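Hi W.,

Here's what went into the run:
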Amino acid sequence: MTPNPTRRREASRRAVLTAAFDLVQEVGYAKLTIEGIAARAGVGKQTIYRWWPSKGVVLFDAFLMLSESGDGGPVVLPDTGDLRADLILVLRATVEELNDPRYDQPMRALATEITHDAELAAAYREHLDEPMREAKRERLRSAQRAGQLAPGLDLDIAVDLIWGPVLNRWLQRTGPLTADYAERVVTAALDGLRPRS
Amino acid sequence: MTPNPTRRREASRRAVLTAAFDLVQEVGYAKLTIEGIAARAGVGKQTIYRWWPSKGVVLFDAFLMLSESGDGGPVVLPDTGDLRADLILVLRATVEELNDPRYDQPMRALATEITHDAELAAAYREHLDEPMREAKRERLRSAQRAGQLAPGLDLDIAVDLIWGPVLNRWLQRTGPLTADYAERVVTAALDGLRPRS
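Here's what came out:
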């Protein structure tokens, strides 16, 4: 039986993306090359260049593949009715992922590619950030319906207020990124900096 | 009269730093080279290598020189007694600076070097971030004394909540960075996401 060419292409694509993800952990983004990825994936350099314009885009697609490797349904955040507890749970998981040595190099590489490449940033926003952001907004909408959030609140500002400090501390290394920090950020964002009487 | 060697060294140092800052705006960080900086500054390549281990550190020192070019006194944030108005003023100025094409490339370059280089990040934190952060904390301390902020508030969390979203939106390009956005972030951080009765 001749192997299905679509399947063969898909297998090569996955081999390239897995190789890129593994390799960037080992050598760092600066030393990641298309040649290195091709050797690791067991494909020709030209196969990669045919599908991807740059190593940044290969890495981006590797993240996309990882994000799609679940059951394919949309991401949903926990909703126990206790907004503070749910947000702390999620933000602590984010902190753990950002501190995980397996993800550290690839995620920093993707973040810096986005910083310098507006086109890749737009693709990132559409395919990776926006589905996650919608899940975050949806959890906040549910809290808003339950009267736990200010009625006129801009949910995008709310998402930025909760997740922005953690991402920024991670990227700019301005302090230790701990579970305790995640919890304090959630509390401060929900309560606000002004005193509550 | 023989020129003072200390002065001559200082003039070369400034020429190198100015050249690095100008050049990164023109060619971007990826194409910035020690050779290019040397040519622009009119010094030998070896002069640069004698003082700086990498182009990232040259650029960092260029920012340090800029931050020291005022009157030498510590940075102080405006304090009119109206915390919200003062924070909006400062955060809008930050947004303008981040949107300024003269600073865009150099600042993105510095930010991504910090993302990948823990040692440079530590130097950045000590010499550039911490003096600014202390000025921010000092403004918040004054508000706390006036009863405008929760008494037990962790001021570093407060700084991260106000400035983190803006820096993150800029670096990750997750949306337009406008004066209006700055204002909404300040309001949300001060009031909190939970309703105030």
